[in-house]
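Exercise 3.2. Students should predict the tertiary structure of the chain below and write it as structure tokens, then compare their answer with the key that follows.

Predict this chain's 3D structure.
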Amino acid sequence: MFRLGVLGLLAAGVVAVAVVAATSVGAKSQRSSATVTSTVARGVVQSTVSGTGSIAAQRSVDVGFQTAGRVTAVYVKPGQRVQAGEALARVDAADAQDALKTALVNLDKAKAQLQQTTEGLTEQELHQLDVGTEQARGTLTTAQKSLSDTQKVADQSLASLQQGVAKAERALTRAKQQASADAKAADQAVTQAQAAVTQAQQQAALDAQDAQAAVDQAQAALAQAQQQAAQDAKAANDAVIEAGQALEAAKRGGNADDVRSAGNALQSAQNNQTSAALKSQQSIASAQNQVTSAQSSQASAALKSQQSIASAQNQVANAKTSRSKTALQDEQAVEQASEQVTDAETALAAGRTSRKQTLDNARTQVTNARQSLKSVEADNAVKTEGPKPADVALARNGVQTAQLAVDSARETVADAVLRAPIAGTVASIAGDVGDDVSGGGGTSSSSSSSSSSGSSTATATPAASSSSAWAPSGWWPARAPC
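Answer key:
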């Protein structure tokens, strides 16, 4: 529980003593021959005496959060003067705000339910009832039309079944003719596939020769590149040796310009040697890549040729398989056509039976739609009656319950801010922003006596005054002394 300690205002332990005296001041009587005259006046003589001691607030109050949550702000600090009702601290009220929004929504719903119960159906709801009635009537009309259409369809179906018998007989004749034509076409397909195998084998031989020639050419280019690289390397190395010897001779001659020129020549020769070596490596690598590419193409061509031959051979096998399969299918087609003739004759008999059942179902739908229309009309008559007292009372109770929930939620939101119940001075604060409080705290008060000491030969009146103090209970103990 969030706790603050507050100690009431109390004047510093000072006791003021006031002494008031009135005297008359006049001229001193003298025995003289001269007479002195003055005006008599009345004045106040005041004396003050100060004393020290310990004092305490006459009353302290402990205040705790009513709402649980996490402390988000502390607005005061020890020693600060606060007024009654001033905000001291706050906890996160997000959950309380959400609960208040939900309670307000529920209240609006309850009021809407009460209004609907007392006022009856709205124009829109009456319109919806009319729409429901029209839909039921439309369903009846649709069912009646469906019965008429079913009658026509059933007659057409019977005629179609009769035509189906004749059609099946014609299909049987066509199936026999198709079997003969398929056998001839299958023989031709086998012959063509065998010719394709021969052609693929011939093409494979030509492709193999071309691929081998490309490999030979690439390997020759690689050998030439390697030979050229060796020659370039030797020439570059000879140039470096010659430049080195020239540099040594220049150094022995002692001419700085000659040494510098010879050094530059040596550096240039070394650079040329490096460049030549790199160029030779690139040429050899390129030639090697060409060999690899040619070999890869050769392997690819061989694989492609194998695949072409295999594909052609598969086509031969497929053509033979297809021929056998077609012959079987044609045989089955003839058998199926014969069965279809039998099935068509059976379907004609079944169609007559189905026609009767379909018409019976359509008549049943008409009867059901007519009964549904009567049910909708009866239900609408009940809904258009006036409100019942029990329903009105229940709706009103719902509004009252929802209002109580709103009031409670608002109090919870308000309790998220801890306020000073009376004016006073903050005595102590234990805790900080980010601490969690459990809520349910209350307000408690306690009283204490004050004491002071002082002395004077005159009558003394204490000048100190005190006011109430407060502090919350239950979480942070200890009140700071004044």
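Discussion points: Residues 194 and 316 are 6 Å apart (CA to CA). The first helix runs from residue 94 to 119.
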